[in-house]
Amino acid sequence: MATVFTRRVIAYVIDFFVVSAIMWILSYFLFAIVGAKNIYQVYQFLPVIVPILIMVYFVLTEKLFAASVGKSLMYLEVKSSNGADISWIQAIVRNLTKIYWVPIIFDWIIGKILRTDRLFNSITRTTVVNDRY
Fold first, then answer.
1. Given 36, 51, 105, 113, which residue has the most CB atoms within 10 angstroms?
2. How far is residue 99's CA from residue 50's CA, in Å, rounded to a whole number?
């Protein structure tokens, strides 16, 4: 049986593919609406749109379902440290480092230095728990 950390990494990779698929579908429809002539204007907004989409995906799935698609497939849930469902503020703050892949690495490294899971899990008092049992 894989550790919770290993399953979280796998879940993050799965979520990357889910968000990529969503972006591909949105890009297809956007291209159809805007047309080939104006597509470069759309590409200028991607550095802003992609992080917003990532935040919306993680915040909504973790707040409403207690897990993203990847976490669900890995039988993981996000809970408050007291065992309750997370609040909207907790969902937003704990996912700030997931906007790009570099901040999540520093979040994890700082968390390990402080002998905790992730820095932002400590700040928000949330944890990822095994949903299988």
1. 51
2. 8
Residues 126, 59 contacting (CB under 8 angstroms): no
Write down the pTM of the prediction: 0.86
3-state secondary structure of 15: helix
Kindly report the CA angle at 62 between 74 and 13, in degrees rounded to 5? 45
Q: Dihedrals φ, ψ of 79, to 5°?
A: -135, 160
Which of 67, 49, 55, 60 is closest to 98 using CA atoms? 55
Kindly list the distances between the CA atom of residue 54 and the CA atoms of 14, 36, 47, 101, in Å, as whole numbers in the listed order. Answer: 13, 26, 11, 11
6-34 per-position pLDDT tens digit? 898 899 999 999 999 998 898 888 888 88
Query: CA 108, CA 16: separation in Å to the nearest integer?
Result: 17
